[in-house]
């Protein structure tokens, strides 16, 4: 395994082992193999390990060791093991280190953050107040793990999310997101013999797409994006059905609610057509007020440790930190290393950022420990 003069060699070796196990969302064998490594690497630092399988998707949870701490308020380290990369990706794109550039499927989003968390626990000294949750379906909306995330976070003093940073900045605000499907029904007919007998669902869908795209608000940072669409069955048949998927992002809850109300008011424009909306809000926004106190703590400990100044960023993408912040639990996101290319073939991590990020997480874990009696 190549080492880096600017990074912990053990961190790179562990990252290589995790990335070299393919773990697409919901793939139980790959996820469980990764969890085996995480469980082994966290032995001695954390309490009891549990494997939670929900609707066939496995997740790993480790409790805090000292459940009788003075404050009774643990800290949750939160991340996900699933990646967007399908089985077989490694054959053409294996883990590699080229100078300070580390590449491979899932290396940035977000296996490196998990490795750093385990390295930080080793360095922190005090970890009896720490919980760890690693989920297996975050990339598709945490459909089976959301309840587990909320259960683990509800009584916590803080949540530290191990998602990658943005150009080195911690993520102090994230947009909330909603997912919808607009179904259009029409009536089939032969497109050549008697098209007038049909009700064209595709034509109606076109009307709906134009109406949907008007619901965004650039001034407020609200995006309403039609993404996936399908209509019809054969070239010579008037389509009797069609649908479109819609992605909504907004900085505040009011905007998400406003867009949903407008979507539910959609009405068909084509005589005889029907329109039905399904879906709803998936994640409420992570508002900056929920991260401000932890950001101050991160800046303070960074100065004390001689680390680079901590910067912050707002991002449009959502994470499981949106769920924990919505519970009222202080949440700081983006504690993973510097890099880029999430969900892209040029995904990479800067090896030079591993050591500093590990030190920052360790310092936060120590700072958030309850007073010693």
From TrEMBL:
Active-site residues (renumbered): 82, 138
Species lineage: Bacteria, Bacillati, Actinomycetota, Actinomycetes, Kitasatosporales
Entries under PANTHER family matching the protein: ACETYLORNITHINE DEACETYLASE, BLL0789 PROTEIN
Protein name: M20 family peptidase
Transmembrane parts of this sequence: none
GO terms, molecular function: hydrolase activity; metal ion binding
InterPro entries: ArgE/DapE_CS (IPR001261), Bact_exopeptidase_dim_dom (IPR036264), Pept_M20_glutamate_carboxypep (IPR017150), Peptidase_M20 (IPR002933), Peptidase_M20_dimer (IPR011650), Peptidase_M20A (IPR050072)
Pfam families assigned: M20_dimer (PF07687), Peptidase_M20 (PF01546)
Cofactor: Zn(2+)
Domain Peptidase M20 dimerisation: start-end pairs: 172-265
UniProt-listed Gene3D superfamilies: 3.30.70.360, Zn peptidases
CDD domains: M20_CPDG2
Organism in which the protein naturally occurs: Streptomyces armeniacus
């Amino acid at each position: 395994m190549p080492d880096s003069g600017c990074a912990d060699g053990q961190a790179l070796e562990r990252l290589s082992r995790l990335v070299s196990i393919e773990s697409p969302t919901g793939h139980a064998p790959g996820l469980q193999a990764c969890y085996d490594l995480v469980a082994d690497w966290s032995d001695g630092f954390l309490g009891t390990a549990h494997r939670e399988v929900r609707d066939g998707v496995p997740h790993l949870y480790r409790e805090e060791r000292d459940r009788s701490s003075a404050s009774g308020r643990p800290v949750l380290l939160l991340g996900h093991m699933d990646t967007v990369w399908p089985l077989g990706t490694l054959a053409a794109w294996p883990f590699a280190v080229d100078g300070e550039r580390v590449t491979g499927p899932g290396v940035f989003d977000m296996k490196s953050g998990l490795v750093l968390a385990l390295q930080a626990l080793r360095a922190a000294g005090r970890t009896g107040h720490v919980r760890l949750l690693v989920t297996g379906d975050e990339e598709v909306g945490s459909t089976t793990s959301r309840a587990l995330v909320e259960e683990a976070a509800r009584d916590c003093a803080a949540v530290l999310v191990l998602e990658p940073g943005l150009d080195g900045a911690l993520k102090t605000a994230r947009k909330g997101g909603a997912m919808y499907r607009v179904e259009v029904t029409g009536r089939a007919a032969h497109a050549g013999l008697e098209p007038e007998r049909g009700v064209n669902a595709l034509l109606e869908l076109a009307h709906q797409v134009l109406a949907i795209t008007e619901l965004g608000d650039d001034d407020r940072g609200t995006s309403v994006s039609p993404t996936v669409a399908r209509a019809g069955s054969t070239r010579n048949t008037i389509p009797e059905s069609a649908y479109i998927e819609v992605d909504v992002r907004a900085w505040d809850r009011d905007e998400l609610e406003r867009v949903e109300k407008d979507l539910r008011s959609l009405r068909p424009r084509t005589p005889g057509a029907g329109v039905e909306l399904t879906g709803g809000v998936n994640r409420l926004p992570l508002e900056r007020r929920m991260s401000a106190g932890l950001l101050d703590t991160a800046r303070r400990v960074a100065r004390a440790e001689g680390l680079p100044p901590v910067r912050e960023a707002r991002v449009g993408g959502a994470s499981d930190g949106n769920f924990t912040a919505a519970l009222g639990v202080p949440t700081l996101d983006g504690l993973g290393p510097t890099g880029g290319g999430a969900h892209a073939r040029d995904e990479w991590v800067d090896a030079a950022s591993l050591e500093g990020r590990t030190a920052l997480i360790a310092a936060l874990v120590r700072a958030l420990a309850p007073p010693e009696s």
